Amino acid sequence: MWTLRRPPKKKNSPDTKSWHTCIPTYAACCPTAGPIIHLGATARDIGDNADLIVLRDAFDILLPKLAGCMKTLGEFADKHKKLATLGFTHFQPAQLTTVGKRACLWLQDLVLCEKNLSRVRAELKFRGIKGATGTQVSFLQLFNGDYEKVRELDNRVTKLAGFSSSYSVTGQTYPRIIDAEIVASLSILGAAVHKMCTDLRLLAGMNEIGELFEPTQIGSSAMPYKQNPRISERVCSITR
């Protein structure tokens, strides 16, 4: 027969010590809330909800930047839609295409990424005030069994944090599959951008498409005339 045993936690273990030093700090900043800042709550009522706010705000930074990139790329594609160029398959010369068509391939990938990221952003919810294991039992005790007040507390905190709804079922944490979904959506964007910038680096090597060469730019100490695709190289590095 299997039995589950939890080893005793050390009194000043790093995870508890780091969190509980935060409580006096918050209390010092807001003395009125000090006595009740952790009343009935667990660390995840504060920490996980804060993480979800950060994730939401990060999406709100990323998505407009992605939209700007798509707009610029769309304008480039329209401008060069009739400019003929040689197409490649397996990086070997193939049939003719246009520069605009080639740019549309990159743009289409970004459109698909934007739709996926927007969906993940729209479906992101708040953990809410759920207590130590997600049952809200500690808050039910604080409100003397009045579950409507518990629900109202959950709804008010959720709205104050700028979310329209919270996850109806949680454990101590919000569903960790949400983290996996966010990472996956960012990885898909990374793959699309890496593909585009790799294409640009290859085309730059054949002098078909190049990046803007700044007046102060130096290719290398030995070959200052080199027009290295520095931006594409950096983007590829970041996406990896």
UniProtKB/TrEMBL annotation:
An example Gene Ontology molecular-function term: (S)-2-(5-amino-1-(5-phospho-D-ribosyl)imidazole-4-carboxamido) succinate lyase (fumarate-forming) activity
Keyword Lyase: yes
GO CC annotation: cytosol
Organism: Aphis gossypii (Cotton aphid)
GO biological process, one term: 'de novo' AMP biosynthetic process
Superkingdom classification of source: Eukaryota
Domain Fumarate lyase N-terminal: 37-235
Protein name: Fumarate lyase N-terminal domain-containing protein
Keywords of this entry: Lyase
Keyword Cytoplasm attached: no
